[in-house]
Automatic annotation (TrEMBL):
Organism from which the protein derives: marine metagenome
Name listed for the protein in its UniProt record: Aryl sulfotransferase
Gene Ontology MF, one: aryl sulfotransferase activity
Pfam families linked: Arylsulfotrans
InterPro entries associated with the record: Arylsulfate_ST, Arylsulfotransferase_bact, Quino_amine_DH_bsu
Length: 281
């Protein structure tokens, strides 16, 4: 993603010989009722519409669209946090709702599994005791007695919960502190949820600058990495070579703020490749 000062709308640049052919699915995380399928020439090939909003979307293999809606009216304060949503909806090609999961604590990301179930990322209130033991962040008079944590649930087509993983049970209140320049409304701010080919969970926690792979069966981290190397990460994705590709946002980086794309080897925690734009911002 990027922007151009001289082409505010439309296709900016396209080099066919250097690009992977396919389609693009842009959505507006800050609020829109539409998602568009565009070809490489910038032409709109299809549009989905939802009156509940489309904040994020996944195109499923059979042509339906799995979307995250706009925030709920009231989620105990969670509705004010970026990425908050009221529901996950599946739309057919004509934008009809064919499946729904409604929970005001849904946020950011989700994934449809090969078995037809759906992984979702949810906020959850932490206990006041655990909240008091979590280090970091900017303390203030308006801090909640119970901050939000992250949990993952697997939802069957009938809406039942068949699996649950709570991040706070596998993190250390002192060893995984909140960024010192962030507030204490939430501990981790999960912003991505993906899976490995073996079905393990790939997670990303912005406020503690941590990405990891969670053994789905045991719940333990198989790999956990980030502080001191990346800052406020997003979207870790599993590559065919076993490495993880992620966006290192760079907010509050001690060496200076800049963003980059990083490929890291989980076996060694070594950075195998990185890319920064020019200028480096």
């Amino acid at each position: 993603m990027g922007w151009s000062s001289h082409h505010p709308v439309g296709l900016i640049h396209y080099s066919p010989q250097q690009c992977y052919r396919g389609y693009n699915l842009p959505t507006n995380a800050r609020g829109s009722n539409d998602a568009f399928l565009m070809d490489m020439e910038g032409r709109i090939c299809h549009r989905w519409h939802s009156e509940e909003g489309i904040g994020y979307a996944h195109l499923l293999p059979y042509g339906n669209l799995l979307i995250r809606t706009a925030p709920p009216c009231d989620a105990g304060g969670a509705e004010k946090i970026g990425g908050s949503s009221a529901a996950i909806l599946e739309l057919d090609w004509d934008s009809n709702v064919v499946w729904e999961y409604r929970n005001p604590l849904v946020h950011h990301d989700y994934e449809r599994l090969p078995n037809g179930n759906t992984l979702v990322l949810l906020f959850e209130n932490l206990s006041s005791d655990l909240t008091s033991r979590i280090r970091g962040g900017i303390a203030g008079d308006s801090d909640p007695e119970s901050m939000f944590g992250d949990q993952i649930q697997e939802i069957a087509p009938d809406g039942s919960v068949v699996y649950e993983w709570k991040a706070w049970e596998h993190l250390d209140p002192e060893g995984d502190p909140i960024c010192p320049l962030e507030n204490r409304v939430e501990w981790t701010h999960g912003n991505s949820l993906k899976t490995t080919p073996e079905g393990d969970l790939i997670v990303s926690y912005r406020l503690i600058s941590t990405v990891g792979i969670v053994d789905k069966a045991s719940g333990d981290f198989k790999w956990k990495w980030g502080p001191g190397h990346i800052s406020h990460p997003h979207h870790p994705t599993y590559l065919d070579n076993g490495n993880i590709l992620l966006f290192d946002n760079g907010f509050h980086r001690s060496q200076g703020t800049y963003s980059r794309v990083v490929e890291v080897n989980p076996a060694t925690s070594e950075i195998a490749w990185e890319f920064r734009g020019q200028p480096s911002i």
